[in-house]
Write a structure and sequence with these properties.
With 367 residues, this protein is α+β, with helices and mostly antiparallel strands. Helix content is 21%, strand content 26%. Strands 1-7-8-9-6-12 form a six-stranded antiparallel beta sheet. A three-stranded antiparallel beta sheet has the order 2-3-4. A two-stranded parallel ribbon has the order 5-13.
Length: 367
Amino acid sequence: ALDAAARAVGAHAYPAPRGIVPKGLTGPRPSCIECGFCGAYDCPVGAKASSPRVFWDGLPAARVVPNAPVGEVLVDGPQVRGVLVRAADGSLVRLESDRVVLAASAVETARLLLLSRPLGHPTGLGNATGQVGRNLVFSLDTSGRAVFPFPSKHFAREDAQRQFVNRAIQDRYQDDAAPGGYPKAGTVVIERGHNNPIQRSLRAAREGGAPLLGGVLVERLRRQLLEETELAYEAFGEMLPRPGCRVLLDPEVTDASGVPAARIEVDANAEEVRRVGRLGELARSVLEGLAPARIVEDAAFRVTSFLQAGAARMGADPETSVCDSAGAVRGVSGLYVVDGAALPTMGGVPPTLTIMANAARIGARFG
């Protein structure tokens, strides 16, 4: 029914890549049990293809040092020599290595490079041309949901909340009608609203503006949990890299160790708001074809800071990039960036799988 509704407005829905091992098949992870707690929670059976599951499972525990944040990358001239970490008791410990790989997220990787200022690197590692921290990008988002009576035409009682829905629409990934001279918008994802009662209760309490209280909230929760179900839409738009969106060291705010915290500056772009708005319009036009009881717009536009890229980007020109195409930080032998910081653009999709693929590509060069 969802595919037909998409075709009716000239769009093409298809199954989005999820990294899920189908039931009955063996793979690197267990099969999904469709519990509905994927968003914001770890998978209770280990089926979710998260970064820790893909990269950390199977790593000998003796090689993992928990609760030991890195405060500085150590170098000797042009050669990396290890890292300085703060142990659980507050002491500083030097871990030596002639190869250091940064994968702390775009913001924290840029912060660590800026904090590391040994002799010969007065503005931070890889920052000879002032590019560390610049061209930070996030995923742009609009989201909402179509609310249906439960049970109803599309949702039978015997299916309860276990009817899996997974569709993506990219008809406006390349969007010639997008404003601002940049013919691209992004990706729309439509899926069953997360089943877990915490998120469903939060959505119910916030619908319509100010949070509800008392008996009105209780009635809304009863209806939300027992009489309704939802198809949620989320759109991922591309934020264009620009020097004005960046990571700096905060001159006043510090972390628990007294080290300068990351300061994030984001300049607004009205054309990006309009481009993302076109994705929301497309999602709602598709969902209207299923005749829901109502469509709720949860966020007309937002910058999703948990999806990060840039700030130490790869490139061919040392004047406009921090790393080369292999993720190697310029000016420091043996130092690599493999997280989203190395990506030169965000793209109009969630970047996680791209980050994983790029990390595997760079890692394969190590042998």
